[in-house]
Amino acid sequence: MLTKKLELAKQQISQKCGCKTGCPKCGRQLRFVAQMAEACIPVVYWELKMNGFSGAENIRTATTDYMSDVKQRYQDGAGICFAGTLGTGKTYGIANILKAALAGDFSAHYCCLADVVAGLTSSMTRANYSALLLSVDFLAIDEVDSRHISASEQAQDLFGTSFERILRHRVQNKLPIIMATNNASIEEAFTGQFRRVIESLGTGFVQVVPALGKDYRLARGKE
Ligand SMILES: [Zn+2]
Q: How far is the CA of 23 from the centre of ligand 1 (A)?
């Protein structure tokens, strides 16, 4: 947990408010920043809203559309996957979807596939981590890429089995999965046995939003 960052963000809020210690007026904001920290939303996105978004247009549209009714999305178990190159605003979009979920009184968790691999393959963390991934209302997995999956066959099997169970449980219980990959498609991000896992879940569990091939961050740098 980002304890120090959270502490500083809370100080900033109460100083801006003028109360310096927290009061009913800034209390909601203080609680919200604590929720974002608990959900592991990266600190850089705590204050970034969609009106400051400068990534790919279809990621903006899909994000704001999803955010407009998180309760309905939750009921439908609507998953979404942003697929595209770096700098198209995939994590920005994900973070804002999770913030909308928290604001709507849902629980949320942000992680990268590498965190999932580490969390599920260590016997120290496996039980707690899989419980979190199974139960959280909105789960976001960023950087979905088969490169992050360990080369060791034993670790692959262990991870594959736990991860498949989690994905299957979430799909069967209509719990939304939000994903992002630098690959052009979800099938490309998962190879080998993971391709099989994804395919076995069917194509309907996530809506894939391509960010298009253009690298928006590079394009901006040239202007
Ligand atoms: Zn205050």
A: 4
Output the six-digit token pair for 163. 């991860």
Residue with tokens 């496996």: 126
DSSP bridge partners of 103:
none
Q: What are the tens digits of pLDDT across the range 32-46?
A: 999 999 999 999 999
Distance between Cα 18 and ligand 1 center (Å): 6
Q: Against a cut of 0.85, is the pTM above it?
A: yes
Residues 6+ apart with CB under 8 A from 168: 200, 201
- Nearest-angstrom CA–CA distance, 52 and 47: 10
Distance 25 CA to ligand 1 centre (A): 5
Q: What tens digit of pLDDT does each residue of 61-77 get?
A: 999 999 999 999 999 99
pLDDT at res. 46: 95
CA distance 20 to 77: 41
